[in-house]
Structure formats: structure tokens, C-alpha cells
Amino acid sequence: MSQFWDIYSINVEFALVLGIFALSAYLGLWSGVLSLAPIAFGAGAAYVSARLAYDKIMIGEANYPLITHLIVGMVIGGLLAWVTSFPLLRLGSHYLALATITLVLIARVIALNLDKYTGGTIGIMVERQIRFWHIPIIIGVVSLVFACLRKSRFGFAMDAVREQPEVATSLGINVQRVRRYAFTFAGVLGGLAGVMQAQLVQYLVPETMYVELAFIAIASAVLGGAYIWVGPLIGALLYTAIPEFVEPFLGASKNIVNGALLVIIMIFRQRGVIDPVQFRNLMMRRRSRRAEA
Amino acid sequence: MNALDCLSVTRQFGGLSAVKNLSFSVPAGAIAGLVGPNGAGKTTVLNLVSGLDRPTSGSICISGQDTSRLKGREFARLGIARTYQNMKMFKGMSVLEHVIVGLDLQRRTTFFHSIVPNPIDRKERAAIRAEAMELLKVMSIDRFADLEAVTLSYGLQRRLEIARAIATKPKLLLLDEPTAGMNQKESSEVGEVLRELHATGITILVVEHNVKFVSDLCETATVINFGELLMTGTPSEVFKSQIVRDAYLGKQRDERLATFSNLRRARKRSIDIGQFST
Fold it and tell me: Is residue A247 in a domain?
């Protein structure tokens, strides 16, 4: 068991951080917006945090504590999201999705060209301060927020905005504001996950948080189920675990399983692995059966 | 004062005028019907009044206030609520949750109350839940509170839609074909509910096809055809009038049918002649 843990603990860490990225993607989907932007905000936050640490170490002082880095990451991610939400959310759904992909591409170009601060193609060293046990705690806090959000005023507003934006408007809900808050909150999570990811890799180059990670985050959310917060977390775990299980059989082409799995899920379970509606209907049926008996 | 004033409202879609120079009013506290044959522009009128769509020209006043500068969501604050011809339920949400969304306008908590467990939010959630349950009882669908709304029957979904609309505490309730797809019993039940709502002081404007429903329920009926006003009056006056009967029962349609059968007869004759000649 401990040997297993030595080999795979790093995978579990990456899976959990991917879970936070997936949750940020899920927040977009929850308010009816397909957005890859949190990855770009995560990259921005990671660079700021890495730079702060680097400067501190260069002048021979001790690094800031982990909690400072996480908070800085969340603030930077949230700010970037808030500012970009004004032009981006004016777009319709498909154009918005494309614009957020572009944002991820632009983030890399900016990181390459600001080499005075980001190290350009060479990148920047990141001191790993995060311990394994920090990650479940962070996931726990984030989960608590999502559990609270689910049946809250804002959660219901997001549900309504996703399903019927016109009706939501006619009920007096400010659709644009709901989307902006969700987008910003996704940015906060993106920033948090970005800082964590950079610390896990211990090295930050423009490709660390790029389109590939963005697509994996969205795919995890869709695979796990984009209708309840547990879904993206499960999706991220599956997305990381399944290729490892098939590695003995497929070798280097193990990642092909994820693509196949996604296709199968999209055909047979369009609402993802975890579907709260199905669960509720199941509970209702059981309750009515008990009432009959 | 009038709850609703439409002043020479026109709405054009490209070359088509869905609503042409239409003026009519609904006095506060009335139950009014808006009737007309298919494609007369009734739903377009409702979309214009509820802020879903904007008139090309003319103005719409709600309780005397001009709405041309208002944003779509501000219509709800002004006291407008509506239902839809094709219902537009929130997929995946329960019956009770639909009404909770309708009550959003009354809630005072902010985004930050939603993401952190706190007593203010907990209290509000409980209060809103109780109020939503109350509204479900008014529409007598409280038994189905925990079911997914889209799994309900057509008639029950119509009721839920009305519950969701009145949750915003409207002064003017717009109903788009509330009895479509219902049987006689169900539609008379809906009529009963609407009468009760009216008694609480809500002004109601109903778009309907069902002549009996309108005559039983409404105090006034406004008839439009091809986007233009045909006449306004009490339902019995209106439905007796020859112009309305022609429009409603389709004089033009009869004419069109006549031309069509003439054409067919003519073509048949030519085919017959053709057969003879061979």
C-alpha cells in the first residue's frame, strides 16, 4: 500500500488540483457559459505568485507563507476575471467560448513576451510549499462553498439562467450580473488552482497552463456531470486515474481512453456520471414504493 | 388609471408588420381578453408588453409609466409577470424550486450570503421555501412540490407556470393561452383560479383561443387580426359581431378555400379533357 502511495501520490495531487480547475469550468457551465478562461486567469495568478516568491528569495529573505500565495492567487484570478468579463460577456454563447479559448492563447503570448518578469521560454522556478494534506483541506473548503451555493438564491438564479435566460429575465433576475459573478468566482478558483498547479510542477513556463489543461478541465466537468459540484471532482479523478489503469495494456497511447470515454459518456449519459435529477427521481420512486407498502 | 396603455404600437419583422398601429388599454383591476385567429399577433403583443421584445414605433405604458427605456428585467419590478405559450420550464428543477426562482425578486441576501453558511441566509431560505409552498397550495399543486417540473402533466405545468409568475407579486399578469391542451374540466378550474387571483387585486390580460373560456372569464375582449385592432367590447358583444366572426371563423379562409377548389376543379377538367383526347 505504501509503495502504491509513493508511486501515485503525485497523480492524486494533480487529480485534485484538476478537480478545482474542473469546478471553475463547471461554474461557467452552471450559468450557461462555456468558458476556458479560468485557466488563463490561473496562469496569471501563478506567475504573480511565483514572481513574488522569486523576488523575496533573490534578496535572501524567506518566502511568503503558502496561505499568502493562495490568497494572492485568488485575488489576482478574480480581478482578471472581473475585468475581462465586461467585454467577454457581451458575446453570445458560441462566440464567448471561442473568445475564452483566445484568451488562453493570448495569455501564453503575453507570458512569452514579458520575459523580464516571467522568464519567457526559460520559465521561472517555483518553491513547493504545498504539502499533500493541504490539498484535501482546500478541496473540502471549496466543496463546502459549492454545497452551500447549490440550493442558495444565487445557485437557483444560475440554474434558471442556464435553462431559460428569457424567463429568468422576466422574473426580474439580472442575467448579466449572475453570469458576471459566476465568471468572477470561476476566476477566483482558477487563480487558486493555478498557484497550486505551479507549486506541484515547481516550475512555470507559458505551456504549464495552456489549452490542453483548459480542455481537460472542461472535459472532466462534462464527464463527471455538469449539474452538481460532485461531478467535476469525480470527473477529474476518473480522467487522471483511468489512463493509469490501462497503461499496462496500452502503453504510451493510454490517453486515448479518455477520448473514447468522453464519446461514450456523451452518447449514453449526456448529463454525466453524476446526475442529481436521476438521483432525485430514484429517491422519489423509492419513497412512493415505501408509502405503498 | 389604466394598468396598461398601448399607443399606436407597431412591430415590424422585416417586411411583415406583426402588429400595426395598435392602441388599446386595460383598466386597472380588470380581466381582459386578447383574442384573434392564428397569426393575428397576440403573442407579439404580449412579448412587447412584457419587455421581451421592443416596438418598432409607438409606446407602451404600464400604470402610466413609459417602458421604452426600461431594461428587460425591470419589467418585473414594475409589476409585470407572464406565462408562455410553450411554458418554458427549467429542466432539472423541482416544482418548488420553480416558485423559489420566481420569488428571487423579494430576496435581500447578496452573493456572499450564498457562498458561506450563515444564519441570515438560512432564515431567508426557510421563509422563501414556506412562501413558495403557500403559492403551490394556492394553485393546488403542493402535492407535486418535489417532482421534477417537466415530468408533470400539461395542465399541472400550466398551473405551475402561473404560480411562478405570481411569485413576483405582479400588478399585471399576462397569460399566453393558459388553457391550451387542457380538457373542459381543467380549463374551468384554471378559470376559477384566475378569478380568485383577480379578486386579490391583480389585473389580468389573457390571450386565448377558447371562446367559451374568454366569455366566461373576461370583462372585456379586444380582438385583433393581422396585427390590427378589430374591435373592443364585452365578450358577448364582440363574439356576436359579424366582423369578428368573419375574422375568427375565417371568411378569408372560406374565400381562399373557394379559389382553391375552383382551381382543383379547373385542373381536373383539363386532365379529363386530356384523357378524352388521347
Answer: no
